[in-house]
Design brief:
The protein has 230 residues and is an alpha+beta fold. It is built from 9 helices and 4 strands. A 4-stranded mixed β-sheet has the order 2-1-3-4, with helices on both faces. It starts with 11 loop residues before the first strand and ends in an 8-residue tail after the last helix. Mean pLDDT is 93; it is low at 1-5.
Length: 230
């Protein structure tokens, strides 16, 4: 019988709850990977993407006017929204991202989340998440449209016919629900939310150094005997 995996041999797992329609999630996703690249043990870090829906009640077949929706729900004016977009465009540009908020299509993201789970089952979860963010925020694609999603899956190296079969039914819908439930159980009320090694949590689009510090802390803690920790 084999014993437990030695702490020095196991990977550091980073769980990321995010939504494709969340601009801070795109930024956080990008900066996290910059931090991992700068981390001494980058090859031992595994990122797992988990689903969260900021607006689960949006229709899946008709785009929504985001300005009108936020004005109604949160009292945000068009001027305030535009100012926030300008700030995000600046921060995004610093990270090599191009936000085109005037082209984004606001629509239900659940089918896109199902695609990320399908991609993860094929070993392409990270590539799919990145492609979906870029499709939504830069290319102005409808990320609820199955034809669009299938094309994105193919571009990520996945079999388009298999992707279409999955999206045409309810495959991976239970995985999306499980992620949303797990977020609720953890008390997560906003994204992005990052959980490192099941212990160290960060929320929001943090700077790269904050991610690096968290990775180092989690790595060292996992390899320090419990009795030796302060």
């Amino acid at each position: 019988m084999s014993g437990p995996v030695d702490a020095a041999d196991r990977e550091l797992v980073v769980e990321v709850w995010s939504d494709v329609m969340c601009p801070f999630c795109y930024l956080g996703h990008t900066v996290l990977h910059e931090a991992i690249d700068a981390f001494e043990h980058a090859d031992r870090v595994q990122v797992r993407y988990r689903s969260y829906q900021l607006m689960p009640d949006l229709p899946t077949d008709t785009p929504t006017d985001l300005n009108a929706l936020l004005s109604q729900r949160q009292g945000v004016t068009a001027e305030q929204l535009e100012a926030g977009h300008r700030q995000l465009m600046q921060r995004g540009a610093e990270a090599g991202l191009e936000y085109r908020f005037d082209q984004t299509i606001t629509i239900n993201t659940r089918t896109a989340h199902r695609l990320t789970h399908f991609a993860a089952s094929q070993g392409a979860g990270e590539a799919m998440v990145d492609a979906l963010f870029r499709a939504h925020f830069t290319d102005g694609k409808n990320i609820a449209d199955i034809d669009t999603l299938v094309t994105l899956a193919g571009a990520a190296g996945l079999d388009e016919n298999t992707a279409r079969d999955a999206l045409s039914g309810d495959a991976f819908d239970a995985d999306v629900t499980a992620d949303v439930d797990a977020a609720r159980q953890r008390g997560i009320q906003g994204v992005p939310y990052f959980l490192i090694d099941g212990t160290y949590a960060l929320s929001g689009a943090q700077p790269r150094d904050a991610f690096v510090r968290a990775l180092v802390t989690a790595w060292d803690a996992a390899r320090t005997p419990a009795g030796d920790r302060a």
